[in-house]
Structure formats: structure tokens, C-alpha cells
Design goal:
single chain; about 120 residues; alpha+beta; GTP Cyclohydrolase I, domain 2; four-stranded antiparallel β-sheet; 3 helices; 4 strands; binds the ligand Nc1nc2c(c(=O)[nH]1)N=C([C@H](O)[C@@H](O)CO)CN2; dihydroneopterin aldolase activity; lyase
Length: about 120
Amino acid sequence: MDKVLISQLSVATVIGIYEWEKQIHQNLLIDLEMAWDNRPAADSDDYQHALCYETVSNRLTALITEKPIELIETVAERCAKCVMDEFNVPWVKVRVMKPGAVPSAAAVGVEIERGHL
Ligand SMILES: Nc1nc2c(c(=O)[nH]1)N=C([C@H](O)[C@@H](O)CO)CN2
């Protein structure tokens, strides 16, 4: 299975369940693995056939920052739905990490897989 990858997409946004968290921006780090047949793009060397990681990154950043969110689970689910619905990705793995949320941990996070191969 071919994939297009995005690693540690950094998104500053209003995220969290506590009142103080709703007053600040915090950084999320997002990893995506998106199933995609890369052969048509490689064979033709034509961007039209590629799943553009830049376009996906910009779209997900806009989606996540458009309004406050409480749970990182919600972020992961919205990212997965977006890449499947808007970019025709048949399967996606999304990991959302929240560095600094637990001071004694480097980061905490969630990971989901959606769709079928
Ligand atoms: N499973 C989750 N647990 C927690 C979340 C979350 O989004 N998913 N969020 C918080 C708080 O917002 C926390 O990050 C504040 O430090 C607590 N647990």
C-alpha cells in the first residue's frame, strides 16, 4: 500500500476542556498516513495525480483553527473525515499529540484509523 505522509504538522489553536485553556493558544502536533496510489503521479511525473501534502496541511490547519475544540479526539476525527471526504483518501491514520498537557510527559495524544484499504 502506498501512502502520503505528513509528520508533526504544528497547529496552534484553542484546545482543551478547562476554562483557562479556552483563553490561550496551544500547540498540537499532527501525524497523518494517507493511503494513496502514488504510481500514476510517479509514472507521469504529473502533480495532477498526486495527493498534495501541502494542500492537505493547509486545509487541516484551517479546519482545526476555525473554532475552539475541547478534545483532541475531536481533532483527530475531523481530520480523518476531511481527508476522506474532500481528498478521496480511502484510509487514513491520524495521530494528534498535545505537548505539555501533562508536565511529566513529553506529550500525550490519540491515534485513530478510519476507512478501508
Ligand atoms: N483523552 C483526553 N483526555 C484529556 C483531554 C483530551 O482532549 N482527551 N484533554 C484534557 C485537558 O484539556 C488537558 O489537556 C489539560 O492539560 C485532559 N484530558
